[in-house]
Amino acid sequence: MTLSGWPADDHVHSQFSWDAADGDLEATCARAVELGLPAVSFTEHLDVGAWQAPPGGWAWRGTVRGSTDGHGRFMSEPLQVQAYAEEVERCRHLFPDLRIRWGVELSEGHRHPVACAEVVGWGFERVVGSLHALADLDHPGQVVEMRGALAQRGVLGTVVAYLDEAAEMAASDAPFDVLGHLDYPLRYWPADAGPVPWAELEERVRHVLSVLAGSGRALEVNTSRPLELVVVRWWREAGGQAVSFGSDAHRPDDLAQRWREVAEAVASAGFRPAADPTALWGRA
Ligand SMILES: [Zn+2]
Ligand SMILES: [Zn+2]
Description:
The protein is α/β, with parallel strands linked by helices. It is about 35% helix and about 20% strand.
């Protein structure tokens, strides 16, 4: 099919995210205009809790408590909400034809109800709810990021635990509109582990999607890795109403990566652009 337009990029980071050393909000907007995107949603990281820190290179902004050998705890620098809002406002004047949304990527919102209330107060226009960390099996009550989770649970065990917790987050009343990167642990899937065993995971994935559809939220197709089209098909079968496209770009050059191929694949799974080109895609 011919796409009537590019989808908006609804998951983008700039210099206001603690892990985006090459982020640049203004240059990202300029790139969006150059590509012809109708809209871009900045979804800067909003992490409330500390997580077990992976060993090595600390290019991230934040503090590590304890050791840096893989057993310390990392707390990211808080989001500078006011400065972020001002920069978005400045860029709206520079790029009047681009719809620029002001949002966040909220980590593990279901674990932080108090912080969630604060998020609602800020009035963000887009909140992507993401899971970046899982329960730390060695330290009850704490969480560990993916590399640590893999060491504790193995590859398949990590994916299973991720899906179970994603279902819990989707069932919660955490204030997010879109479930981000359900395939996140697959970023760490080792090349020698063979293909992802979807038949084995199908029931769990379908469960997450059905809970998410019931909550009225949208599913994100994150284009930072190749699309898992089967998941989009299951999303439609689960009654999912909307799909969001997110490049998860942490620098301007990665904006809208894999865009046309992913958009065409999502269209083939039964979704299409809304009448408003800046809106999420709906069911065909
Ligand atoms: Zn994320
Ligand atoms: Zn992200």
